[in-house]
Amino acid sequence: MQDFRENPNENFRQAYASTTVENELFDDNEMEVDLASPWQRMGARIMDGLPFAGIGILAAILVAFTGGSDGKAAMAVIILAVVAAIGLLIYNLVIMARDGQSIGKKIVGIRVITEDGDNPGFVKYCLVREIGYNFIFTLIGIVNENLGDALATIAGIICVVMLFMESRNRQTLQDLLAKTLVIKN
């Protein structure tokens, strides 16, 4: 992405200034940004899962075709699929930390920023917003699987509803946990 600012050292928030939505969280340092639409965010989430689904489907098909062998070919396919999925996950984490965008967010043209307008980086984006949020439900699921599943489903529904709440800056539970916003790029 080319930087068209006169002074490339000016802060990230000024580079993404807009005139659409004013956020009350910024107090004296008010910032205006274009919030990502709920449809963009849901589309990005779906696109994030498609490569992993593709790897799984391709692996299942290849394992089915190698079913008549002694199992070594099927195991090789499974190992290859796991390595591909881990590689894709690592790539996604790197670009999320570097650019504030997952693969799906890049395709859709949205990004995650902190409430201060900065790039959230690895800790806020990856560890808090993505891994930490899901880890909460995993821990609950370890204690009680049904409760963990129920709470994850309820949280998912709440997040979808929150996406449509422009008065609350369309911040989902993950955004509130990490103090982030999702904006149009």
Automatic annotation (TrEMBL):
- Respond yes or no to whether keyword RNA-binding is given for this record: no
Q: Which UniProt keywords apply?
A: Cell membrane, Membrane, Transmembrane, Transmembrane helix
Where is the protein found, in the record's own terms? Cell membrane
Its topology with respect to the membrane?
Multi-pass membrane protein
Enumerate the Pfam families for this protein: RDD
- Coiled-coil-forming residues are none
One GO CC annotation, please?
plasma membrane
Give residue ranges for domain RDD: 35-179
**Transmembrane region positions?**
49-67, 73-95, 147-165
Q: Does the keyword Lipid biosynthesis apply?
A: no
- How is this protein named in the record? RDD domain-containing protein
**Which organism encodes this protein?**
Eikenella halliae
